[in-house]
Specification:
256 residues, alpha/beta, 11 helices, 16% strand
């Protein structure tokens, strides 16, 4: 399978401090490396540069201004890749970095070049690590936490599955923080306006929230890529998701 895994800020960081959750990142890397060794083609869409950059700059919290966020991202991106490179290298995996913005995908010529790069890296056996180029674009930085970018990437490379890791178990029929009887929606055949109306009920710690995740799932499924939104607290559950077990919320490919 060709699998895109998107990991967001809420999964990569500690809730109490906002700093990197090293243990969880290490476990995620071990799972993705194992999937790679099993023969799967893996692409990782990763947030986290701003949190790492803020820490390295000695800031007590993430900047509030867009300019501050962009600066922190510029500092943190190199550190983030250094961390991934170090962890993946322990399993003999070569990683590569791709930073771009959505307009690159929407331009026919640059889209083709980008796809060629993805395919060649995968052919070489590398795991591409993708992030928005936050220093020159703020679309995902402010509103998406790379949710939309992961959907664009999955459709660009014709992925077999997009897995989005977040801080909730999936999409609920109501806000589980307010309603103890809220039920997890395990499978979605079609993203309806009614479903979109309850999308703000979960996954609110990252900048994306669940609204942008549902929007990303809608884009991917309408373009032939099924999506699983699941809790990233235990990355080993990715195995079950790939095996077709009931994990998180599964969004089926939209029917004609």
């Amino acid at each position: 399978m060709r699998i895109v895994v998107k990991v967001g800020t809420s999964t990569l960081t500690h809730k109490s401090t906002g700093k990197s959750n090293i243990a969880r990142i290490a476990k995620l890397v071990s799972v993705l490396s194992d999937l790679h060794n099993m023969g799967h083609e893996v692409v990782l869409v990763s947030s986290g540069a701003i949190g790492i950059g803020s820490t390295k700059l000695g800031l007590s919290s993430k900047p509030e201004s867009v300019m501050g966020l962009q600066a922190a991202a510029a500092v943190g991106q190199g550190e983030l890749m250094f961390l991934y490179d170090k962890l993946f290298s322990e399993y003999g995996i070569v990683v590569s970095q791709l930073l771009f913005t959505s307009d690159v995908i929407h331009n026919e010529e640059s889209r083709k070049h980008l796809l060629d790069t993805f395919n060649q890296l995968i052919q070489y056996g590398s795991i591409p690590i993708v992030n928005e180029n936050d220093s020159v674009s703020i679309e995902e930085l402010v509103n998406g936490d790379n949710d939309g970018l992961s959907a664009l990437v999955s459709t660009l490379i014709d992925a077999d599955l997009l897995i989005m890791l977040t801080d909730t178990d999936g999409l609920y029929d109501s806000n589980p923080k307010e309603n103890k009887n809220a039920k997890l929606i395990t499978r979605v055949e079609k993203i309806t306006p009614e479903l979109e109306a309850v999308a703000g009920c979960a996954g609110l710690r990252g900048t994306g929230g669940f609204v942008t995740k549902l929007s990303a799932a809608k884009h991917a499924t309408q373009n032939g890529v099924p999506v699983i939104i699941m809790n990233g607290e235990k990355p080993t559950k990715i195995y079950k998701a790939i095996d077709g077990k009931e994990i998180g919320t599964y969004f089926a490919v939209a029917k004609e």
